[in-house]
Amino acid sequence: MNEKPGKIPWEVTRRGFLKTLGAAGIGVAAASAVESIVGAAPTAATDSETHQWAFVIDLRKCDGCEECTKACQATHALAKDQRWINVYKIKNSTGTEFFMPRLCMQCENPPCLRVCPTGATYAGRDGVVLVDQNLCIGCRTCMAACPYEARYFNWKEPPTPLKPVAQTMPEFPVPQKKGTVGKCILCVHYANQGKLPACVDACSMEALYIGDMTTDVATNGHETVKLSKFLRDNDAVHFREELGTRPRVWYIAGHGQKLDY
Question: Cβ(56)–Cβ(247) under 8 Å?
């Protein structure tokens, strides 16, 4: 069977992403591949046995339905005013309106981590930036340092989760803790179970992709792509890349558009 160039000759199920990644055996040096695409070399993705999570948002597909936001809130038992993924309606220079989901950029050079006085904010081996709410003192310095406004303070007691949680941990901070900061953690608790992030699973427009820089694979649950080629072929860019935070979230805006709001 002849496969199209760049197409991986296997499919991924919505509930078996990690199993597929482990069996892919692509053997691509993801760090150098991504560097050649966007000009900023990821510093991780060096351990072939460790996933290095990334995220891609195809703005051409997003219709602003906010199902991703609702799924995130339900999964993490968040209050209605807590939105770890926001969807903004934006008008570009030509007057055309489009929607832009914004979550934590999972920076490789995260300003929030550098300013945290207690070490509550840290990066896991898989590259996801987490918050240990047992160490967080609620100073909100990290919120001031985040240029993407992707951190949220828990002013009130959080809603009670629909299902009992045996143990709250940074990878699954449910329920949230009053007086601390919370944010998107790319649903790494799902990744550890071989599932897609809640937002990806809920997106009916197939606009959101979870990717692994180690195996150079990304999926929206319906199609599987080679991450580096997908970014290159679709002119993927970082949001506010000039800040030097080296995000692991890429946006596909078409060809040549500049992201800003």
Answer: no
Q: Which H or E run contains 114?
A: helix 111-115
Q: Which two tokens stand for residue 64?
A: 């602003």
Structural contact between residues 79 and 159, judged by C-beta atoms closer than 8 angstroms = yes
Rounded to the nearest angstrom, the gap between the alpha carbon of residue 249 and the centroid of all alpha carbons in its chain is 6
Sequence-distant contacts of 119-124: CB under 8 A, at least 24 apart: 120/180, 120/181, 122/170, 124/170, 124/171, 124/188
Supply 79's token pair.
């209050």
For the purposes of burial, counting CB atoms within 10 Å of the CB of 48, is it exposed (0-12), middle (13-18) or buried (19 or more)?
Answer: exposed
Q: Is the peptide bond before 173 cis (omega within 30 degrees of 0)?
A: no
Q: Is 206 left (phi over 0), alpha (psi -120 to 50) or beta?
A: left
pLDDT at 23 over 60: no
Name the CATH architecture for the domain at 17-252: 2-Layer Sandwich (3.30)
Mean pLDDT, the chain, integer: 83
Q: pLDDT of 52-89, one tens digit each?
A: 999 999 999 999 999 999 999 999 999 999 999 999 99
One-letter amino acid of 101:
P
Q: What is the pLDDT of residues 157-187, one digit of tens each?
A: 999 998 877 778 999 999 999 999 999 999 9
Domain ranges of the chain: 17-252
